Each structure stands twice: as C-alpha cells, then as structure tokens.
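Email to the structure team, subject: Dehydratase model.

Hi all, the expression group asked for a predicted structure before they design truncation constructs. Nothing fancy, just the tokens so they can compare against earlier work. One-line instruction: predict Dehydratase, return tokens.
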Amino acid sequence: MTQHTRSPAEWFFEDFEEGQVFRTQGRTITDADLVTFAGWSWDTNPVHTDAEHSASGRYGEPIAHGALGLSVALGLASRLGIFESCSIALLGIDGWRFEHPIVAGDTVHCAVRITSVRATSSGEAGILDREFVLTNQHGTVVQRGNIGLMVARHPAG
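Reply from the structure team: attached below.
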C-alpha cells in the first residue's frame, strides 16, 4: 500500500488503491441525537422515542434510527477529509445492513475500505467502491454496506 504524505484535502482519484482502509474517530450517540433525528425525519416510532414503551420491548431501551447510524457513518467518513476535495457525486448505497441496535451512550467508529478503483467510461473522473463498517465501543458491527463515490481526477499540470 502506498503511503501518502499530502494532506487529506489534496487527495484525488489517483491517490486511492484497492484495499486501503481508513479508520475514523469515534462519535458517541446521545439521547439528544435520537430526539433530534426523530424531529427532523418525522419518524417518531416509539421504539426510538418512548423510553417506557421501549423498556418492555426487545432491546429494553430506545434504539437509534437505522438511518441515523448510516448518517453518522457518512459524517465520520467525511471528517477523514480525504473525500472532501475530490467528491463529485454519491452513486448509491448498496446492501446496507442493520446488524445490531445502536443506543444512546454507544460510541461508534467507522472503517472505510476501498474495494475497487476504476475510471469512468469517459476517463474524466473515477469511481471508488467503498465498504463501510460501523462498530460500537465493544467492537460489535452495528451497520455495514457499500457506498459508491464518483471522484475527481488529479488536475493536469
């Protein structure tokens, strides 16, 4: 694997290689995150918003929305800085799985593995296939899936 010495904000298509793994910082999920996400998504299902209802449910406490975990995974990857200057378009989310619940107090981390690197048919940009694995503080995989990204090539010159 090639070692890069440039700052993350200077990465382009040519800097990525199949097999690279990038690990993010942690993010602790709070009760406020669950409430805020429920408010702006309009998903107020009691499994996410009602402690009394959840206490007698499968998990014994409110769980985070699946889409909240996905959003946090994308945000953590964004904080790496390596995709910021070169991103053109998110291409899709494939095979996303919600493997274990996320609850308030969990600290999640994300590993992003580059699974393939290829030029677009025009050759003007590149495609990164990326596997995201979101784990909690116990190392349990809570969510995983693949997220394709179109990225810019290094400017000529």
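Strands lie at 21-23, 27-28, 87-98, 107-119, 125-135, 141-152. The CA atoms of residues 6 and 59 lie 45 Å apart. Ping us if the truncation boundaries need rechecking.
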